[in-house]
Amino acid sequence: MPVLRQSIDDALKELRSSHEGLSREDALARIREFGPNVIQRVERPGQLRLLAHEFTHFFARVLWLAAGLAGLAHWYDPAAGMDTLALAVVAVIVVNAVFSFWQQYRTEQALAALERLLPRSVRTIRDGAVYDIPSADLVPGDIIRLEAGDRVPADARMLEAFGLRLNNATITGESVPVALDTRASTDRDPVHASNVALAGTAVVSGRGTALVFATGSHTEFAKIAGLAQQVHAELSPLQRELTRLTHLVTAIAVALGGVFFLAAIALGLPLAAALLFGVGIIVANVPEGLLPTVTLSLAMAAQRMAARHALVRHLPSVETLGAATVICTDKTGTLTENRMRIRRLHIDGLDRERPCGDALRRLASDYPTYFEACLLCENITDTGAGGAHEQQGDPMEVALLQMGREALPDLAAPERLDEIPFDSDRRRLSTLYRRGDERILYVKGALETLLPLCTRALIGGTEVPLDAAAARALIARQDGLASEGLRVLALAVRHLGGDAAPDELEEDLTLLGLVALEDPPRPEVPDAVARCRSAGVRVIMVTGDHPRTALAIARQVGLATRPDPRIITGERLRQLSDTQLQLALDEPEILFARIDADQKLRVVQSLQRKGEVVAATGDGVNDAPALKAADIGVAMGRSGTEVTREAADLVLADDNFASIVHAIEEGRAVYANIRKFLTYILTSNVPELVPYVAFVMLGIPLPLTIAQILAVDLGTDLVPALALGAEAPEHDVMRKPPRRASERLLSTALLLRAYLFLGFFEALAGMAAYFYVLSRGGWEWGTALSAGDPVYLQATTACLVGIVVTQVVNLFCCRSDERSAFAAPARRNPLIALGLAVELGLTVAIVYSPLGHRLFGTAPLPVEVWLFTLPWAGLMMAAEELRKLVVRRRLRSAASQT
After folding, report:
1. 569 membership: H or E segment, kind and range
2. Could you read off the pLDDT of 10-55 as tens digits, one per residue?
């Protein structure tokens, strides 16, 4: 039988301990047997293995293949400049690998945070004496002492409890302190047993001694830690799409390269030329700059989110939040402020909103005894000095004490004689004072425990008999306040003239009134919930708190608007099969209350099985497994535990639920921006591919060298692509639903626009400039040109310039797939101007500098060649503006019909 269900003597006997504690010899033997009181690590891959993976994943292997083929081509033809390509591609692999490894390394610190949450030392009774020992040295059978402010170091069964209350929020999510007693529990679950103090929880008031029965990995705390470590982190939607994209683009590139290599052989080209041609086709279609561009774009978005109080710990999560369809949010500390505040006073049969300042002091002058009970009936440690008070204890008592001090600032504290502490049976606290010759007993607690002890009530400043009708009215008022999610306490007093036996003190009481407290919702949350709803993002509360409290808060913040939202408690959830749970999640409004850590994890995973992209928020240790399993975990930065922050992908620095909405907006912008620069990058593949097709099919000199392709993909295109990645969210981004799960990053529409529309115009401009320079130089069809011929060098340079000039226009075209290029001024995005400057500056350097000539096989061009490319760029812009006009008209027509 578990020790929590045994009597104190039986529990001590079961663990072979006593009230004198373990002997030194027993403790040493047990630490050898059970090990130290620390959380055990789950075996993880070594850092070198993780780093090696960054060099061997699929896209890295593709780039290694490209580098290897370039090296092979250089071996066949050293004059082709393929060694430069090989080195550049290897540099891309290294930069991406190091950056990705560093990001991953920073996210693997959750276990260290778990260990820091446990206390470093603990007061322990051994051999009948009290010692401060390291918490790691605790063993089953040890006797520990607990006081207000302590953190519990191990799971322990209470032996003595004097007003002892624990904050179990880190384990259960329940915001109300729990009173502990010493009786044998009828509950088999230590999480809900009233005589068990759990590792990682905090003592808010009282004191006691406890018998340790579980340490280290056997504690409930460690089980949650194990859940957090065992949950496998799935790839984000963006990572899955990028994987699919790289597989698709690589397959196309390799297939085209192979087909054209065989075609070149069939047409009689030498093996070296055919290999050069095949590698050129592959390099032209593999966007080498894609991964660095995506990575840097995500990093810039993370910086923008940090400015809005959302700190990104895992870069792909930037975009994942934008794809979120459901947010599973905790209540305490996330939707609410995680502090108790007095909301209403029920005095003299009337409800009053809590007054402040002079109004409060006037009310206190009419009802002084009521406010004396608030001020003097307490069990709080005041650690302040002088005029600064810092209270340590039950948050409800702290709120009452603070109101009492504000209401009666000049009250001379009477002599405190005795206290009858709060416990789970009595559910009340009594304090006895002496004022002159009179003794006064102040009592506060649950109305149902005080009402049978009261014979009178304070009405109109006079004590009157408390009859059955008045008692029913008080009970009805308590139920009404509780239905609003408020926690209700009753206050009473007794004036004692002579002596009274201790067991007779709490009799013949006078009821002073009720006080209703709340953990108030954050004021910005209702607006944030409304914005989520307009953005098509569903918000589901998953809390460890009471169903009635959860529903009241849900109504206040706008999560529950229907008269009968579905509420599923943890007990009911245990009875539901996975199928039943998934069907229940179809309810338009659903709340989960009294939920344990493993159950929150189950809710998240059920939503994922339904195809939802789930964001989960939380602040306690109990939230860590669900945060790690969710598509994106969002932790509270201020009130959250460090383990939760370490398990999360995103940390809200201001604990503001509204910051999630800003993060969703940024996340959606990231996805849109990736599509923008993907269109921009893929567009240039067409003018890079067409010269090689023309080279084989038309028998002309190769219009564009591989080194010049590299100049575009990893040179001139990189900063403009980043500029598109830094575009601000469009004005209506939060009025659109989340993108469909079936929507692809590389969609058919994007491919058609990039390859068959924009790419067509770029290829036309590049080839036109190439033939223009050849014709100016007197070239005739069928005439061979050497690689060093000045006319050939100028012609390939002209083709390169034609591509770059049209890419400048394409930069503006890609800022939106439906809005005009002239609708959003470039000054909204300073990187646009920088991108243009870099693109044109690099091109000028490539065309006119000796180093550019040597690396890329270029030659200086006269001004008229640049001017020749401008009408082609203008034609491209005009065609794209016409296409966008047609798209906008279709969208307006579709909107008018709905």
Report:
1. strand 566-569
2. 999 999 999 999 998 999 999 999 989 887 655 556 677 777 877 8
Helix (H) or strand (E) holding 15: none
Domain containing 822 equals: 673-898
What's the CA gap between 609 and 116, in Å, rounded?
A: 34
Sign of CA dihedral 368, 370, 372, 374: negative
pLDDT at 761: 96
Q: Nearest 10 degrees: CA dihedral of 748, 754, 758, 761?
A: -110
The distance in angstroms from the start CA to the end CA of the chain is 66
pLDDT bin (cut points 50, 70, 90) of residue 388 is very low
Inside any domain, residue 254: no
d(CA 808, CA 818): 18
8 A C-beta contact, residue 810 and residue 681:
no
Residue 123 and residue 200 share a domain: yes
SS3 state at 620: coil
Residues 636 and 496 placed together within one structural domain of the fold: no
CATH of the domain at 374: 3.40.1110.10
Task: Provide the pLDDT for residue 709.
Answer: 82
Catalytic residues: 330
- We report the CATH number of the domain holding residue 625 as 3.40.50.1000
- Report the SS3 class of residue 43: coil
Least confident interval from 105-119, 204-218, 219-233, 768-782? 105-119
pLDDT > 70 fraction of the chain, expressed in percent and rounded:
85
CATH of the domain at 834: 1.20.1110.10
Helix (H, G, I), strand (E, B) or coil at 516: strand
| Three-class SS of 813-867 | HCCCCCCCCCCCCHHHCHHHHHHHHHHHHHHHHHHHCHHHHHHHCCCCCCHHHHH
CA angle, residues 434, 436, 438, in degrees to nearest 5: 60
Query: In terms of pTM, does the model score above 0.90?
Result: no
Q: How far apart are CA 121 and CA 151, in angstroms?
A: 10
What's the mean per-residue pLDDT of the chain? Answer: 83
Cβ neighbours for 579, distance < 8 A, ≥ 6 positions apart: none
Query: For residues 695 and 657, what is the distance between their CA atoms, to the nearest angstrom?
Result: 59
